[in-house]
TrEMBL record, chains A, B:
Lineage: Bacteria, Bacillati, Actinomycetota, Actinomycetes, Kitasatosporales
Stretches assigned to the HTH lacI-type domain: 3-57
Keywords: DNA-binding, Transcription, Transcription regulation
UniProt-listed PROSITE patterns: HTH_LACI_1 (PS00356), HTH_LACI_2 (PS50932)
Region (Disordered): 227-248
The name this protein goes by in its record: LacI family transcriptional regulator
DNA sequence: ATTGCCGTAGCAAGCGCTTTCTATTGGGTA
DNA sequence: TACCCAATAGAAAGCGCTTGCTACGGCAAT
């Protein structure tokens, strides 16, 4: 029923070994023979049996790209770039380096993350790229470190993209981390420079590196300006008491969703009706924040400035255009793809920090009356 | 180095066959024995060798989900839903039905679509889900039909989601098609009812089923209202001559991108400065259209109404909230996932049409002066 | 007691490919 | 002319797992 290597060999009047070598192109085969084999392959419409091939060669051409939320362009852009870089090199003509880059959606669930890693391990994946922020739960970190070490042991190349390096994991090929802290700091500094003193912050979900780093940057900027109490920021979103400059309780956590941005902003506005700016965990959340501000009858940026993070494509189209922090998602994804393929040399120490650039646009302006 | 089934068998003091049966759970094994095996698996940290298993069993647990653009939430939502449905059933406890659902990004390129299908075929994928509009190029249709038939032949379940059925392809498990034509018609009818008579249309790329169907719906509505010349719509976007009611040349094609929407709208506005509404191929394009309308100093919806298609999450957040056509992307994706798994019975004839619902919001209103 | 089965476990034959090692050939060189 | 080597092709041994078939106890029925 199905055509096998042996069938092709028979038709081309050569041995199976020769067919295999023609297909893999890693052994000299006379031009005439090669031609004959290739024609037989075509005639018979032969398709290599992946599992058999992987079993015999003890390697596979599968490359897994793990994302936290496939419906979020933040991940889509990185994954697409990586996939292009990986699947793109088919110019070889032959099946040589044809990798199968696939993206796996964890939905942000640690269990699914591990499950996918196991499944990829089963398949003896050639490489794995983990994108986006990691969960900071100690147990999960241990589980991940162990799992990744095993993968690396089995020859799988592990690359992190937009995720900080795992402590003590030298098994990893490279990790490209975004400078979320620096970006967060610059964004808030921008607001401070404009004259804002009462700034609300809609943070992402707790226990995510991305969330923590961006928030740290924000708090660092405030602290440098002599505002707020850095200690109050994390873990006590519903803060109480009075801070040096009334920044207490101006941080609310929630998922990276538009809805969360909407509700958190309403909450912030209730807690501090006099705030003049809202910084969101990312652009999607910022959109929700904008809606909430408007629904309160306030104008952007005249009454309240709003800022996001990531600079997703739609951000420049928002009205007013969203001030945000640009992350070179495409470039990072592409680079991760090349690193996974081994077509780019890893950065020194396997760690690279990717700069986050402030994009000041129309959604932020000086507060109504600078005190 | 690596642990194999035999190692586990030795440790559990049973034969490899028994271990295999415990792991696959498709053959009676005494409880005590099972326990022993499971413990050995744990102790040894054994991970099944996927390729070997697939080779021997002549099946694999890979499920491929093909998307046209992974950075577009339209696809992300469907893919995520399908993946959840497929990867979600791990409740079985054992490795039983653990499928590896992966998404492959074709980037809209027919070659990559075929390449991915071949790669999936190599892996003897358990199922393949094709999402979104198809290319209407005759050559590609033939190639696809042939390829899908071969996949189906090899036991791969093929499901189409958001894509019209392939003519004469009974190899396919099911196809869930969106009622793009009906949605397009209702959307334009809505505009006509509001009193619009001069409506610009920013269509998607040529030769895509989605593009054609939506446009057909639009033109059908116009024709039913005695406006426009249906024959002028397709294939002659830069129309010439005069139509019955001056709808000529009010259709411009371009990719499904924000930028395309922006430029096309500028073009439409130049051709017909008196148009009172713009219908976009999808929400992303509509966002670009909105930007263009505003940049021309026109207000939405007072001066120009704008409408989109898909009802992506951000559409309700646009200002003003975008009138659009809702497609139940998540539900469709989930259903496709179940169909691929065989956990839902296919619709009669393998074909289901999914209704598209008009969402009239603030971006559309009666034109300034109804003539 | 015998027979017949049911419930379990093992044997062993592959699944379709890769790859090491071993031929075979046809010059080029001594 | 004899010899050696480079270039190319084949033989065959697995890779690690699944599964049809066989084997072996007991237990119920005869």
């Amino acid at each position: 029923m199905t055509v096998t290597l042996a069938d092709v060999a028979a038709r081309a009047r050569v041995s199976p070994a020769t067919v295999s070598r023609v297909l893999n192109g890693n052994y000299p085969v006379a031009a005439a023979t090669r031609e004959r084999v290739l024609r037989a392959v075509d005639d018979l419409d032969y398709v290599l049996n992946g599992p058999a091939s992987s079993l015999a060669a003890a390697t596979s051409d599968l490359v897994g790209i793990l994302v936290n939320d496939i419906a979020d362009p933040f991940f889509g852009i990185m994954a697409g770039a990586a996939q292009t870089e990986i699947g793109g090199q088919e110019g070889t003509g032959r099946a040589g380096g044809e990798k199968l880059a696939v993206v796996c959606n964890t939905g942000g669930s640690p269990e699914r993350e591990l499950t996918y890693l196991t499944l990829l391990q089963r398949q003896r994946a050639a490489a794995v790229i983990l994108t986006g922020g990691a969960l900071e739960d100690p147990g999960h970190i241990v589980a991940m470190t162990t799992k990744l070490a095993k993968l690396a042991d089995a020859g799988t190349r592990v690359v992190l993209c937009g995720r900080p390096p795992l402590p003590g994991s030298d098994a990893i090929v490279a990790s490209l981390a975004f400078d979320n802290r620096g970006g967060g700091r610059r964004l808030t500094e921008h607001l401070l420079t404009l004259g804002h003193r009462k700034i609300g912050y809609v943070a992402g979900p707790l226990e995510r590196t991305t969330t923590r780093h961006r928030l740290e940057g924000h708090l660092a900027a405030l602290a440098a300006a002599g505002l707020g109490d850095p200690a109050s920021g994390e873990g006590r979103s519903t803060g109480s008491g009075e801070g040096r400059a009334g920044q207490e309780g101006l941080v609310v956590h929630g998922p990276y969703s538009r809805r969360s941005g909407y509700e958190a902003t309403l909450e912030l506005l209730r807690r501090a009706p006099d705030l003049t700016a809202v910084v969101a965990a990312n652009d999607t959340v910022a959109l929700g924040a904008c809606a909430a501000v408007r629904d309160q009858g306030l104008r952007i940026p005249e009454d309240v400035s709003v800022a996001g993070f990531d600079d997703l494509p739609f951000s420049v189209d928002a009205t007013p255009a969203l001030t945000t922090v640009r992350l070179p998602l495409y470039e990072a994804g592409a680079r991760a793809g090349r690193l996974a393929m081994g077509t780019e040399t890893p950065p020194p120490g396997g760690i690279a920090t990717i700069t986050a650039e402030l994009m000041a646009r129309a959604s932020t302006a000086p507060p109504r009356a600078t005190r």
